[in-house]
Amino acid sequence: MPWPLPREFMLKRMLAADANCDGRFITGVTSTGIYCLPSCRARKPRPENVVFYPAQLQARAAGLRPCLRCRPDDHAAGLDPHERLVEQLIAGVDLARVRHVADLAAQAGVGSSKLRALFQTHLHTTPADWLAMQRVRAARARLLGSGQTAANIAFEVGFESLSAFGEQFRRWNAMTPQAYRRLPSGTFTLRLPDDYPLEAMLRDLGRDHTGTTVRVQGDTCQAGLRLPSGPRSVRVAFTGTQALVQVDGPVPLNAEDAGPLHEQVLGLLGLKHAPARFEAQLGADPALAALIEGRRGLRVPLVPDLFDGVVWAVLGQQVTFVAACTLRHRLTVLAGTLLAGSLYAPATPQAVLTLSVDELRGLGLTVARAQLLRHFAGQVASGELILEQLATGTAARATRTLLALPGVGPWTANYLLLRVLGFQDSAPVGDSGLIRGLQRFFGLPQRPGPREAGALMARFAPHRSLATFHLWQHASLEPS
């Protein structure tokens, strides 16, 4: 049927969310200023607010912008339709109506096995875990932002029983809902897993010899964090199976800081993802089981501040870890915030932007790295690059977004996915420490090249992030 198609036909196909019409026309919504695919699952606009276009080019010329839910430009570029399906699904889930994974699969129009494969590929998690985490996140916001009872909140976000709510909340937050509600006091306790390898985790937390933003002394970790109301020093004291978290200083914790503080500490301590499935997978394979011997319970600690993770990734390009620590120390002393005891909170993007390329070169950065760091800072400060959105979207979109930045290659992108954004199946295959770990673990006569390293890491899927962390630990061991 040649363009223009009959308006009545396009209205009916749009209201039916007909994916067969994707590519045949674009729906423009004048009331919101966006344009969509006919199959978009967002709430349908009133007919009088709809203008149809043959393609996104004409919609953009009319001053409209692409819908962030159905992403019509991705469809026009021929990007993976399965990825778009996952993005549309996670953008529009109604937790009150989607009670089970089967409901999620029905909404996606696929079977449960297919849905699991899609989530594993694009989100690096299972549908059940993703759905539980969405409910828990919704509950956290209500616990801090309303006076509702925990029971009412549990049912409102879709839990079918209080026991399930309590179990899942403790699993993802290392505390009870009642304890979470008391976060604004500035002191709280996290329950550590029984297999938490404290010695190994403390060793990783204290790996930066400069101690600029994180220091470990005995069983206590001190960290400088950036919270919404400003930088604060936070002390984490480990006692048995608990971690006591306390915000230092005479100024009370701002209520808006409570949720971000808890989130950052969870990431810092590696408590966002459990290693049980990874260890079960390796334990069933005699050729791989040795990797976790003596290191069971090991988790991937995340850089708590997302932009600081970018700083680590940029300064770590093609240098040793010790050199990266030195460069970051110089940058943080110059652009970060000094706290009590000569501890610093990380530099903000705005603070980095006040430094010229020449000033950054004076710290020891190359011109290329100085320019990349400033570009990253500008993108984050302006809101063009929202790191939080990358962390909650698909791995492929996060990778594409990062690789589109000049100066970002596969190592930087994958490091950010693994150590900063928290994806569970990423591996910086060209990383020298990872290559060294693979050679040592598999007893190879020479260092594996990129293709061989990629094939070896594929044996650890879908847990390549944690495998990378184990191999980094393995590479640091002295040869016997």
Automatic annotation (TrEMBL):
Required cofactor(s): Zn(2+)
Pfam families in the cross-refs: Ada_Zn_binding, HhH-GPD, HTH_18
Catalytic reaction equation(s): Hydrolysis of alkylated DNA, releasing 3-methyladenine, 3-methylguanine, 7-methylguanine and 7-methyladenine
Organism expressing this protein natively: Deinococcus malanensis
Protein's name in the database: DNA-3-methyladenine glycosylase II
Top class in the EC scheme: hydrolase
Keyword Zinc in record: no
Domain HTH araC/xylS-type: 83-183
Superkingdom field: Bacteria
Enzyme Commission code: 3.2.2.21
Keywords of this entry: Activator, DNA damage, DNA repair, Methyltransferase, Transcription, Transcription regulation, Transferase
